[in-house]
Amino acid sequence: MCAEPLEGIPPGTDYSAFFLDPEFKARYPGITLPPPSFIASGARILSFEAVRSIKLVFPVREHQLNPIGTLQGGILCSFFDEAFGTLSFASLRKPCVSIDMAVNFIRPIRPGEGLIISAEFTAKSRKLIHLSAEARNGKEKLAATATSKLMVYEP
User: Fold this and answer.
1) Distance between CA atoms of 57 and 45, rounded to whole angstroms?
2) What is the rounded average pLDDT of the residues 62-90?
3) Structurally, how many domains does the chain consist of?
4) Residue 10 domain-assigned?
5) What are the backbone angles phi and psi of residue 85, rounded to the nearest 5°?
6) Residue 52 falls inside a structural domain
7) 79 and 58 Cβ atoms separated by less than 8 Å
8) What is the CA radius of gyration of the chain?
9) Model confidence at 113: pLDDT above 90
10) What does residue 64 show for φ and ψ, rounded to 5 degrees?
11) Which residue has the higher pLDDT, 17 or 133?
């Protein structure tokens, strides 16, 4: 498991080693890791500490903008979901599914800015985990916050 910072990893990095877990693959065949949505998001992992926190950076691309030229809110929600999903899987090594998420939008995010999301565990039980996160724009200003509950999924 990767617990040290991963600062400076270039875009397009192959994260298969981060998500690699032969025991998980044997127990849950058919689950794709890393998830296609993680790859498509262009996310880069900056740091990770198991059952504690993760920090990722997401590019803000032109095709993700709303009519006024800022990041569309649903895209930002998907970035929070990627952060929560990555943190939960990497920490627990079990599949988890979101059962709710609340997002508070604070300021706009412009294209070309790297959006940094820092997510952390706030509570954990056998079947549920509670996570919270902050999103900061390229100027390191708070742009949004989110909370989520995920259920540990046992098929």
Assistant:
1) 7
2) 96
3) 1
4) no
5) -65, -45
6) yes
7) yes
8) 15
9) no
10) -100, 5
11) 133
